[in-house]
From TrEMBL:
Signal peptide range in chain numbering: 1-29
Assigned keywords, A-Z: Hydrolase, Signal
Official protein name in the record: Alpha/beta hydrolase
Organism: Nonomuraea longispora
Gene3D superfamilies referenced in this protein's UniProt entry, alphabetically: alpha/beta hydrolase
Pfam families recorded: Abhydrolase_1
Superkingdom assignment: Bacteria
Positions of the AB hydrolase-1 domain: 80-333
GO MF annotation list: hydrolase activity
Length: 349
């Protein structure tokens, strides 16, 4: 072997060795980070996440999709609270609110199409407007009297879509609304906490990347379980705030809902979220009491989006919760529950 060839082989070997060392170091750091979180005291270790059950119902929508619905609490309650969950979650994400309100109020919880136990839709009907139509059909079928709507993230957008398409429901039928960690539009402009230039790059490549992953959804889904530690860390740091006391069991619960959402569904709804714009429909909520809640560390629907909603609804009550991120109803259930109880009491008959 010539001196030049030996030098090239040596350089290549060094590069491979450095890369291998880097991968090993990253894997070790990941295990260390996950291990540290999982070894923390866990007050929620015995919490029955995903085990609360109501009276199950099946709704076939006007376009033929089957939605999973659960009714909880006393049937003779004069007021119904309807919960609309967020993107990549399910009705189980309202665990603490259901647990707190089910004794005194009639609750309707439903899995939005393609999420949870509801039937998969296609890319053509994966729109916020269609979700608004689904909500209208849920109300028509399972809410005999007045109600309060509660929506988190995409669920809040669903409520806005309903306001846009069925404004006559707000007032007599829909007496109040809670918009939790959501947005009226311009999600494509969020920075995710990144520097401005890097954020622009991410937004430029994200649609193509998400679309590509969606086309290979089955393959991606088979590999998502292998990256469970990475998913755990991403859920912990994107979904929850700065508190060091976030329960590992709670993070696992949230991550399991996200992982259960097929990659194709993630890709199908992504354009709808990025193109969502319902600021002009917010005036419909003006006559009804409205609570707006957001974590001050929410990277996915930042506080300025909730402030924009509050600016359009000057009578609404805006609550910004310190050291809290996007999964506010799981991370700070006491604050969210108190806000919902206060809202319900304002409109009780």
């Amino acid at each position: 072997m010539t001196t030049t060839r030996r030098r090239r082989v040596g350089i290549a070997g060094a590069l491979v060795g450095a890369a291998s060392a880097g991968v090993a170091a990253a894997a070790l750091a990941k295990r260390y980070a996950v291990g540290r979180i999982r070894l923390r005291p866990d007050d929620e270790a015995s919490e029955p996440f995903g085990e609360l059950r109501g009276r199950e119902r099946t709704l076939v929508t006007s376009d033929g999709k089957v939605l999973h619905v659960e009714i909880d609490g006393p049937d003779d309650a004069p007021l119904t609270v309807v919960f609309c969950h967020g993107y990549c979650l399910s009705l189980e994400s309202w665990h603490y609110q259901r647990k707190d309100l089910r004794e005194n109020y009639r609750l309707v919880l439903w899995d939005q199409r393609s999420h949870g136990r509801s039937q998969r839709g296609g890319s053509d009907d994966s729109t916020i407007d269609r979700l608004g139509d689904d909500l209208a059909e849920v109300i028509d079928a399972y809410v005999p009297g007045p109600c309060v709507l509660v929506g988190h993230s995409m669920g809040g957008m669903t409520i806005m879509a309903l306001a846009d398409r069925r404004p006559e429901l707000f007032g007599e039928k829909i007496r109040a609304a809670a918009l939790v960690a959501t947005s009226a539009g311009k999600l494509a402009e969020i920075t995710l906490g990144l520097p401005a230039l890097l954020s622009k790059v991410v937004h430029k490549v994200a649609p193509t990347t998400v679309s590509m992953l969606g086309k290979r959804g089955a393959l991606v889904d088979r590999t998502r379980h292998a990256g469970s530690d990475i998913a755990f860390l991403m859920t912990r740091y994107m979904g929850f705030g700065d508190s060091r006391n976030v329960s590992p069991t709670l993070v696992d619960f949230a991550e399991s809902m996200i992982r259960a959402t097929p990659t194709e569904v993630v890709a199908d709804f992504y354009p709808a979220l990025m193109n969502h714009d319902k600021l002009s429909a917010l005036h419909v909520l003006g006559p009804v009491p409205t609570a707006i809640l957001v974590g001050d560390g929410d990277w996915l629907t930042p506080p300025e989006h909730s402030r924009a909603i509050a600016a359009a609804l000057p009578k609404a009550q805006l609550t910004e919760v310190p050291d809290t991120s996007h999964l506010i109803q799981l991370e700070r259930p006491g604050i969210v529950n108190d806000a919902l109880r206060d809202l319900v009491k304002r409109v009780e008959l």
